[in-house]
Write a structure and sequence with these properties.
5-stranded mixed sheet, 235 residues, globular
Length: 235
């Protein structure tokens, strides 16, 4: 049995050498960008600007990605998203609408509270090493129920029932950080800190994501989506 397997880890070299990345990258197809009239972003900064511009269109109610039948046939051959968005499961938060992007443009990882666990890291590694994403955005949002529940759990010193404690424990560090500053709006401060902490986590996660960040192939950032206005503020 190989040493990497016994350790339960996989190196970047192992990912590609094993053929998985090559096979899946080939299946992405050169026509994967046919769904959009925009050229694929070449750099992380260009990818982030495309998201910022898309959000501006969304706020102005002037979207350009309205015909989802365009490129449907091409998308059946594979995918090649340019950005990953780690976002909350909240039904009011829809990244493709918020950033005015079409099907196939965004690789979305969702969980209540938009934190990154082991499964989330694996998904982002796949997005970076196989799909070629250029940027990762951890997107929190106003009035986040998951963050609010974590605050209440800490203040009441009571864990919620079922599997909810795992969610609370994941968000707890951000709440403690925010509490230390005694903010006027603890929910807003904790939501922002949660997004920032998880963007930092994506940037330093060994071995794949940290390597991509160090080489400048990808960048991570945090943002807050205002449900009332539709605007994303990058932190």
């Amino acid at each position: 049995m190989c040493q990497d397997c016994t350790k339960g880890t996989i190196s970047r070299r192992g990912l590609f050498a094993g053929g998985l990345a090559l096979t899946l990258a080939a299946s992405s197809g050169s026509m994967a960008f046919a769904q959009s009239s925009e050229a694929p972003p070449a750099t992380p900064d260009e990818a982030l600007k495309r998201l910022i511009d898309g959000n501006a269109r969304y706020v102005a109610n002037s979207p350009i990605n309205t015909d989802h039948s365009v490129g449907r046939s091409a998308r059946s051959t594979g995918q090649q998203p340019f950005a990953a968005v780690v976002t909350c499961s909240d039904s009011r938060v829809v990244p493709e609408l918020i950033f005015d992007q079409g099907p196939g443009d965004l690789f979305v990882v969702r969980v209540a509270g938009n934190f990154i666990n082991e499964d989330g890291l694996a998904s982002l590694e796949f997005g970076a090493a196989v799909l070629g994403i250029k940027t990762i955005v951890v997107l929190g949002h106003t009035s986040c129920g998951a963050v609010r529940a974590t605050i209440e759990s800490i203040q009441d010193k009571i864990l919620p029932p079922g599997h909810l404690p795992s969610l609370v424990n994941a968000i707890r560090p951000a709440v403690y950080d925010a509490m230390a500053d005694n903010p006027a709006d603890l929910l807003a401060a904790a939501t922002a800190q949660n997004a920032k902490l998880n963007a930092e986590k994506a940037a330093v996660a060994d071995p794949i994501l940290s390597d991509f960040h160090a080489s400048g192939k990808i960048k991570s950032s945090a943002g807050i989506y205002d449900i009332a206005t539709g605007k994303v503020a990058f932190l």
